[in-house]
Automatic annotation (TrEMBL):
Record keywords, A-Z: GTP-binding, Lipoprotein, Magnesium, Metal-binding, Myristate, Nucleotide-binding
Binding of Mg(2+), residues: T89, T106
Classification lineage: Eukaryota, Metazoa, Ecdysozoa, Nematoda, Chromadorea
InterPro entries, per database record: ARL2/3, P-loop_NTPase, Small_GTP-bd, Small_GTPase_ARF/SAR
SMART domains with a match to the protein in the record: ARF (SM00177), RAB (SM00175), SAR (SM00178)
Family as reported in the entry's similarity comment: Belongs to the small GTPase superfamily. Arf family.
Protein's UniProt keywords contain Metal-binding: yes
Taxonomic source organism: Bursaphelenchus xylophilus (Pinewood nematode worm)
One MF term in the entry's GO annotations: metal ion binding
UniProt name for this protein: ADP-ribosylation factor-like protein 6
PROSITE patterns found in the cross-reference section: ARF
Residues bound to GTP: G82, L83, D84, C85, S86, G87, K88, T89, G128, N184, K185, Q186, D187
């Protein structure tokens, strides 16, 4: 049976209210209002769309409730990514007040909860080796902020860093998230400044995310507090909803 005919047959006198089925129809972009009209009449078409609007309204209400609850608790889910050896884990160790002088490469992920000012940050630090990057997408859901760490001394891999960042910004689950870029390892002589990295990586081309780049150093703590403060405030302003 052709797909449109099957949809018409399943609708019967009153189009279905099953949300999964509606999502299937919308996803396939194949709902034939003309066919339903011919089979069921105009009233059935109106009932279908009225019921669809109710479902969508309910989903929006639930989303608002969850987001309000999250903001009342000041919880922010932070995803920390970047190429291998960029200093992601060292930054987190520094912020947590742990020993950051000798940090082994992350083969997998680290989870930590950081009490930062009035916010509670649920941080996911994911390994940046090329063999692990295909698994990054497993951690995208419900992310509020993305911290992207760049090794300011590794000039030869800036292009690779930008390519990986582009992939992240094109992910549907990360659309609109706050983007904090850390030009790390500023304590090392000869490192590029944040302005240099912004120019080399063409960060000004980022159009659909709130973003900011900071000079930083995991070893000296340079700008880490200021950078995370900006990130938290941006998330707070971006997803806060009126009562």
């Amino acid at each position: 049976m052709p797909l449109i005919a099957e949809i018409q047959y399943r609708c019967g006198e009153v189009p279905p209210l099953n949300e999964i089925y509606i999502n299937f129809i919308l996803h396939k972009n194949c709902f034939d209002c003309g066919g339903i009209y011919r089979l069921c009449g105009l009233s059935a078409v109106r009932k279908f769309w009225n019921n669809l609007y109710i479902i969508l309204d309910l989903r929006m209400v639930m989303l608002k409730v969850l987001r309000k609850q999250k903001m009342r608790e000041h919880q922010i889910r932070v995803l920390i990514l970047g190429l291998d050896c960029s200093g992601k884990t060292t930054i987190m160790k520094r912020l947590e007040g742990e020993d950051y002088m000798e940090v082994a490469p992350t083969f997998g992920f680290n989870i930590s909860t950081l009490e930062f000012r009035q916010w509670k940050l649920n941080c996911w630090d994911i390994g940046g080796q090329s063999s692990l990057r295909s698994y990054w997408r497993n951690y995208f859901e419900h992310t509020d902020a993305l911290v992207y760490v760049v090794d300011s001394t590794d000039v030869l891999r800036l292009k690779e860093a930008r390519q990986e960042l582009d992939k992240l910004l094109n992910e549907q689950c990360l659309v609109g998230v706050t983007l904090l870029i850390l030009a790390n390892k500023q304590d090392i002589a000869g490192s590029l400044t944040a302005e240099d990295i912004q120019r080399e990586m063409k960060l000004e081309e980022i159009k659909y995310h709130h973003w900011k780049i900071f000079d930083s150093s995991a070893y000296t703590g340079q700008n880490l507090i200021e950078a995370f403060q900006w990130m938290c405030e941006d998330v707070d302003q971006r997803i806060r909803l009126p009562d």
